[in-house]
């Protein structure tokens, strides 16, 4: 290599270029987002699928560094901080509920009212003066279309200020059909529609939630999908990438009421699909147009309209668990008015969508997100990334999220993941257990 | 949830209550205990069972962040710091003893006198000027009833100040029968009694030693045992919990000589067993009284008199290995004057005690201790725990331990566990090896 | 132990002796070496064996905290920084090369010129203003005797200053036969000789590169090999250790040109082999002299002349990956002028050298190095080690390396191993993957 004269086509500089779109001035406009390693708090997040919490069952999860326990009683779901006030133990590890109104800590019997969270009694110490003077935070719950949502809030966030679930869900149609016309596909359904059925899955992602979130609506990343089976099986025209052609290629939505987010004007003249690159010998071979549109709303919910087929919409969430794990949700929604519709949809989901889309197609995004983790984990990436024109998407998102989030979660304290190096973490890892989302329950006496 | 008016029975406050018994004033009385993450040094600790160290064998362990190597020669056991003065290597990894007086480092042949610890020669460098000018710390050893105890001390703690083993073992009977009468059960044996036989096991606990220690004599935690097999098989009356009824429910022992600790006046009017809770629909069904009494002495030794049966006593130790691992010992002691007695006792231990008590019953305590680890590991728990009346037990212990410990171990330096994130730690973990206590020996050339 | 009077042969002191050879004055002469946890940069290092990189293949590795990607095109190898300028992703994870002149990032199509490293285009964004204004560092490559070497440099180290590969390889013979006579064995071959064949292996070592490096030429460590199979099978006289007899037992080489290092005058009167220790009852039984000589040159390359047999030389490298992992190379070199010679050499390597030497003999060195890791990892060892006369070898090396290294690598930023506790690291560990050297490639869609 040292023998041959170096051929330079242009001026070669390694290091940070002044031509990157994320100048320090731009960066200063999204500093809150850079601070939000543990997530945005005081927002609605999906917690579990309905069928993960049968009647009378208890599950423990963690969101934004907060441990949360859920219990279903007579169909209704309660969510409370999964941390006994006594010695910090997780109630969910060994579910102990003596009646329908309370949940108890299995260790010393501290008992909490499901509705209010107050410490209402202690099993073998019912006169203790601590009773009634403290309690655990409760979290509002909504259950729709087979999904359980929890409003993850700061301890002192008042009930009266809790916004409707719809404020943290994607734009709905046809309400937004005028503002965001969709001549190439029918109105996308919403999880809030009557008879909406949400089918999907969630799994833990090994990286920060923001890195995962930005991948979904980034119009240059679709290159990772060029070899996916479904693309070729269904003969899709999937571009190599899509380029913004004007400054208004993205519209932000910042109404007084409703979700806050951005819409990308895909399949209009504001975005030009790139179907070939002569110099590199690349050319998209598909014949069938595959129209879709992406948008994202706080706290970081992706919507892909008309995906993977007409009358189906794909939602994604990247729910922060800690500062370096998140729960990745992929959900397909379709309105199914009849039982027959539900069966057909479940069948198509099981036979086509799950394997080819949720796994096949989206699995590429999993490793893509993981591939960025080392660069961003120690902060280097947030300073040294060099963004380009197509990154107008994440940049716009970061600024908007910085303006409209309802709170920046503090780092977890006294919870799993607060300290990365506990012996318990190493023990679980030695036993083959990856960092996770749900709390493993203690086994019965063998 | 947001639709229904919130029902409040009492004033709900989340966060720290002023009614907790661990006020800041109380906390200041046990600050030394809060500083003792790596343990109390200059105390006697169990190291191994006798049968874990046959004649001429060598084993390496770690206590209070100090690596220790043991060797048995002609029946006698020597304990020395398991760290070659040269380059810090553990002698125990590849036992190398050329004669009965010394132990050598397998790496460069540095040789230490077993008795004094002095560097007495180097295998291929016997004239080096370092010889005789340095050495490794020695630790007094006592072997009783099938257990090996080591006095784990600071490097400069003089031999002349080494207390008798009995100073760090639980109260003995009948010496203390007058001070602590036991009308409901016969005098509990001691490991120091003639013909005492100690049977049990030790395993690594994944959490700080203090969190483990406090569990054993905490009278409200017995709730975790309510479903244990042995309780129902033997039809025990095991309370839901036990409440203190007076300020002198615990007596501390702080004599000039002898062990320092506390005794709990269980099964007297000073502690009231709670056998039912109407509101929660709980009621203890057992018929057979099961009398026992707990006490704890420095450095953190639990005694359960009359457990699990008459004439048997249970001891527990929570020996600090690092600040987040400890070795948990469960030992049952019985005096067996004849060989026939020994056989019967060994048989009952193998057939009943080991599975139903040491595993079945005590396994609950294992997960209970682990369940507290995340809350305390980053310090949150030490500040934010909210203790109640029954916590007079750990609070008294913490204050007493703060007054009477013989030294607070410094954080380990240059030893396993000092740095939690070495590649060696990750390699072992990848290979399925949990954090442990004993040093794995290097394999022979395959 | 407390009963028996302590027998002291000499004054026993634990702790740091004033007689250690690494006094603070001596230590100050190698402070740069103490700072070089991540390695010496701007040096030639082995990257892969030639057969690990077939035509058109791509591999990712890491050296001195720098991720490096290699690609072979028409027989020629290119090495570039394995970190896309966009969002830090490793190009090697999913090799994507659209032509013979470039390598692309599989994520967003950023495309780099192999020769210059410049960002020459972006697959679906060929007009972006970032193009041509930045790029990734290139690294000179040399391929000899079946090994691929890379000059790992700082980003701004000029091409014109890149030294020849021979400057970072051991002393050659017969060029140095006058300066370093070898009456007892024939001139050792070099990897740079015509028809030189290098056979060997590389594997990841779990510890800092410096700790590994110092083991190889330390004349007192050979004690660990006393029980190795090959020693007894071939009836070697392998000393218990070798002692320096004069101050000039080591000669440093610090010529204007050429490698910088040290030569040890083994098998001259300057080093006395120790074959027995009466006091400890040790005596070497071998009959056949086994003559060899060790030397080491920057950046830390060991040469063992005449090992394991005449006309064969052993080289070792300890290539820093991070501050606590290194890639350990063991390579045997022989000049094989004919195809017949190659076959015979390969056969002897497969049948004898690989199992008895590279594994059997050298495996002892693996655990010896790991055994030091805890002592040095948190810095304790660098301060508290107590060196002796035989440590003139590592001490001389440390001083020389401090004088002649071409740069001290900065800690890795935004790369694997910069942060030890990422969830990705724990996930891989849970899956049984040890910390490594090569980048695992993303699997194809299943």
Explain what the structure shows.
The structure is a homotrimer of 446-residue chains. The first copy, chain A, is of the alpha+beta class. Chain A folds into two domains: 43-142, N-terminal domain of TfIIb (Single Sheet); 164-378 and 386-404, Naphthalene 1,2-dioxygenase Alpha Subunit, Chain A, domain 1. Chain A contains eight helices and 23 strands. In chain A, the strands form seven sheets. In chain A, strands 11-23-22-21-20-15-14 form a seven-stranded antiparallel beta sheet. The model of chain A is unreliable at 1-11 (pLDDT under 50). Chains in contact: A-B, A-C, B-C. At the A-C interface, β13, α5, α6 and α8 of A face β4, β7, β8 and α8 of C.
**Greatest contact pair?**
A-C, 74 and 71 residues
Provide the helix percentage of chain A.
10-25%
Q: Oligomerization state of this entry?
A: homotrimer
Strand content of chain A: 25-35%
- Strands of chain A, count: 23
- Give the radius of gyration of chain A: 24 Å
Query: Given the C-alpha coordinates, what overall shape of chain A results?
Result: globular
| Termini Cα gap of chain A | 65 Å
The low-pLDDT segments of chain A are 1-11
Number of helices of chain A: 8
How is the CATH topology of the largest domain in chain A named?
A: Naphthalene 1,2-dioxygenase Alpha Subunit, Chain A, domain 1
Instruction: Give the integer mean of the pLDDT values of chain A.
Output: 93
Spatially, the strands of the biggest sheet of chain A line up as 11-23-22-21-20-15-14
């Amino acid at each position: 290599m040292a023998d041959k004269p170096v051929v330079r086509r242009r001026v070669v500089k390694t290091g940070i270029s002044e031509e990157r779109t994320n100048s320090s001035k731009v960066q200063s406009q999204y500093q809150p987002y850079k601070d939000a390693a543990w997530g945005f708090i005081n927002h609605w997040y999906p917690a579990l699928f309905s069928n993960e919490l049968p009647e009378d069952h208890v599950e423990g999860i963690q969101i934004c560094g907060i441990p949360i326990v859920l219990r279903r009683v007579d169909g209704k779901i309660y969510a409370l901080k999964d941390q006994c006030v006594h010695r910090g133990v997780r109630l969910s590890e060994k579910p102990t509920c003596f009646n329908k109104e309370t949940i108890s800590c299995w260790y010393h019997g501290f008992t909490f009212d499901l509705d209010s969270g107050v410490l209402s009694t202690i099993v073998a110490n019912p006169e203790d003066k601590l009773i009634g003077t403290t309690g655990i935070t409760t979290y509002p719950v909504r259950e729709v279309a087979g999904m359980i949502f929890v409003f993850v809030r700061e301890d002192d966030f008042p009930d009266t200020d809790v916004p409707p679930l719809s404020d943290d869900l994607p734009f709905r149609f046809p309400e937004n059909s005028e503002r965001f016309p969709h001549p190439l596909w029918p109105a996308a359904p919403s999880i809030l529609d009557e008879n909406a059925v949400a089918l999907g899955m969630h799994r833990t992602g090994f990286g920060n939630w923001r890195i995962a979130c930005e991948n979904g609506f980034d119009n240059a990343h679709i290159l990772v999908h060029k070899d996916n089976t479904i693309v070729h099986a269904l003969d899709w025209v999937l571009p190599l990438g899509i380029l913004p052609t004007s400054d208004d290629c993205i519209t932000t939505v910042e109404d007084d009421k409703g979700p806050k987010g951005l819409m990308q004007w895909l399949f209009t003249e504001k975005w030009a699909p790139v179907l070939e690159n002569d110099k590199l010998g690349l050319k998209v071979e598909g014949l069938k147009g595959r129209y879709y549109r992406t948008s994202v709303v706080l706290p970081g919910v992706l919507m892909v309209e008309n995906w993977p087929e007409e009358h189906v919409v794909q939602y994604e969430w990247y729910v922060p668990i800690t500062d370096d794990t998140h729960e990745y949700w992929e959900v397909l929604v379709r309105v199914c008015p009849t039982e027959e519709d539900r069966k057909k949809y479940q069948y198509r989901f099981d036979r086509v969508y799950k394997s080819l889309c949720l796994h096949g197609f989206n699995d590429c995004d999993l490793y893509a997100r993981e591939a960025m983790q080392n660069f961003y984990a120690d902060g280097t990436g947030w300073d040294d990334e060099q963004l380009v024109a197509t990154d107008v998407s994440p940049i716009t998102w970061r600024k908007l999220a910085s303006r409209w989030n309802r709170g920046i979660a503090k780092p977890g304290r006294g919870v799993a993941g607060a300290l990365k190096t506990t012996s318990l973490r190493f023990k679980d890892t030695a036993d083959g257990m990856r960092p996770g989302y749900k709390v493993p329950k203690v086994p019965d006496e063998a």
